[in-house]
Amino acid sequence: MTTLNQLKFRNSFSQLPEAFYTRQSANPLTNPRLVCISQPAADLIELDTSCTSLNQLCEITSGNDTCPSFATLAMVYSGHQFGSYNPQLGDGRGLLLGEVQTAQQENWDLYLKGSGTTPYSRFGDGRAVLRSCIREFLCSEAMQHLGIPTTRALCVTTSDTPVYRETEERGSTLLRLARTHIRFGHFEYFYYTRQHDLLKALADYTIGQYFPQLVNDSDKYLLLFQEVISKTALMVAHWQAAGFAHGVMNTDNMSILGETFDYGPFGFQDDFDWNYICNHSDYSGRYAFSQQPDISYWNCGRLAQALLPLIDETEPLQTIIDQYPQLYSSHYTRLMTRKLGLTLVEDEDPELIKSLLQLLQNEHCDYTLFFRALCYFAPDTPLPDYLQTLQQEPLLRWLSTYAERLKRNLTDNPARSQAMRQVNPKFILRNYLAQQTIEQAEQGNYKPIEELLSVLESPYDEHPESEHFAAAPPDWGKKLEISCSS
Ligand code: AMP
Ligand code: MG
Description:
EC 2.7.7.108, alpha+beta, two-stranded antiparallel sheet, 12 strands, 16 helices, single chain, binds adenosine monophosphate
């Protein structure tokens, strides 16, 4: 275990041409204190979490100190936001502090969100507030433990520096760990500014860093694209299966490694609604839950376009991208059949899934409670409690089809039940739980974050002492609107 000072840094991104970034340091926050830390995330970089080390972490995450081995910078990128191209984006309120290399030769970007203005801040103040940092902190760690590809969160720090949103809030930071901070929007930036030599440098860097097996392949750029779309399809299939809505799937929020990235007004499904829009500012529903697979496909199209100068002809890129819908569907069907405890996928299973989602929609079933209860379903035995609370006729109709299907399954009911409990979580980060935790934290009580985090770190376990975190939301907590202002 080492302190931040003793970690080994590689800082490869800072060795790229200066056109990729602006060197910049963080603006200090006043009277900082550490709000929460994720021990599993600290373990990833073998970071010591003893008291002195945490004091140093607090100084660094509040911009009051730095490490000599950091190569701190703000990255430039652009991207499609709500369907329109925005040529002027970049790290407007975050900095890549450096890239840690662990003893196991794993690389982790250390990225500080909320660190003050940069040349890419436009009209923003470069800051982040406590509620948005806590939401990203809890959700990235929750997603990780649900088995969904994601960036990680090491810690949240708050301060007395005032930040003005709808009301006065506290300037806070989130220290993110991620394998990369390269977004689709990085490629778009060099494509639309017609800097094709830098576009090539970016693609070569990306391949060298993350896909070294492709370095000597004559089709390396096509294969890079293939890798990106495969990872993106898998990530979005995971979102759909878990009932997760990202909320702002702009191309600048799409990681090149298919990790859930840039947590804003995200939300998990409570009562299942196919058209769930978690982002209060998404008036047209562009990023509604049901739209996510199509939007990710569209976003991959934007990346394909940006890669064109490296490939010269559209046809091979088109051939790859045409596979996307099929790729996505097969991942999704596999994940959903796993949730249903089915050992093999059969041709009619997509129909079984579709009819189930229709049932959940019609009956306003809680998505997570339903699947968790289904783990305990066995034909010819009393229904699990949650299923008994639902309208019986449509439910029993669907269950009888399911029971027929189970006859061809390769496991018996106890084994199926056990397998299902390992993929159908008891605990998710419900919006209202995040909200309650945030309200406490804003009063200076950080304990509830720790309590919630501890169940989210093993969401498939029973945690009988924390039953309250598994309950359906109260009415006030069902339709919380999360704004983009963060
Ligand atoms: P996001 O919606 O968080 O993905 O941000 C979109 C773009 O706006 C990114 O380039 C951010 O860096 C920038 N941005 C968001 N909030 C702020 C802020 N408070 N100050 C400066 N830039 C910001
Ligand atoms: Mg963003």
